[in-house]
Amino acid sequence: MLVCFAVREEAKFFLPPEDGDGAVQVWLTGMGRQNAAESIRAAIQHTQPQRVLSCGFAGGLNPRFKVGDLLYDCDFDVGLAAELEELQAVPATFYCAKRVAITAEEKRQLWESTAADAVEMESSVIRTICQEFKIPSATIRVISDAANENLPLDFNALMTGESRIDYVKLARTILLSPGKIPKLIKFQQQTAAAARNMGRLLEGLIGKACR
Questions:
Q1: Measured distance CA(142)–CA(59) in Å, rounded
Q2: pLDDT in tens, 173-197
């Protein structure tokens, strides 16, 4: 099983089983469609997985979902739907965006135009490539920011051309707008809690799947 995350922060509470003889591999793809496409092709060649999970954060579009809620969508033959629901994950639809949805208004417009429950930036590409290789796959995401929430910073403006956070720009932005620091700290607390929920889910899922 290949478990993919875009960035390390999403994976920090997931501990793959140490006695699995390499049965579970973790792969960081980087953010965005292009990074995900290039990385998943390399990952498939390197690990030759039987199943692929695209995991990490998602922004809420459907107001029904709150921070920390776990959502999934999976191929029938991935064989994990029952286990996911036992672990309190909810079937949902995802929109794979080209940019981060920053404001509640952006999210509202995306919900109205796509009818998706949540937005993220990698899963559609990863799973399309998995289909090319005839590998069953699933999207498993945790809500890091709800539909009615604005993000504390415009993360799109802080990206490099390779869809990575430019930490020099980030530091400069914080220095110029110190009033945003409390909101940024709150957001970091939310994402940490969301990552912890994801870690618990994946550990439970792998335990059930490997019985």
A1: 8
A2: 999 999 999 999 999 999 999 999 9
DSSP string of the chain, one letter each residue: -EEEESSHHHHTT----TTSTT-SEEEE--SHHHHHHHHHHHHHHHH--S-EEEEEEEEE-STT--TT-EEEEE-GGG--HHHHHHTT-EE--EEE-SS---SHHHHHHHHHHH--SEEESSHHHHHHHHHHTT--EEEEEEEEE-TT---SS-GGGGB-TTS-B-HHHHHHHHHH-GGGHHHHHHHHHHHHHHHHHHHHHHHHHHHHHT-
Output the CA torsion 105→106→112→115 (10° steps).
-130
Strand partners, 33: none
Q: Nearest Cα to 10, choosing from 34, 28, 32?
A: 28
Question: CA-CA distance, 193 to 123, in Å (whole number)?
Answer: 21
The Cα 188–Cα 138 span in angstroms is 26
Q: Is the pTM of this model over 0.85?
A: yes
Alpha carbon distance 145, 58 (integer Å): 7
Q: Which residue has the tokens 């997985």?
A: 49
What residues pair up with 188 in beta bridges, in sequence order?
A: none
User: What whole-number distance in Å separates Cα of residue 173 and Cα of residue 175?
Assistant: 5
Residue with tokens 């990575």, as numbered in its chain: 164
Looking at residue 208, what is its pLDDT?
77
Closest to 110 (Cα-Cα) out of 125, 91, 96, 128: 96
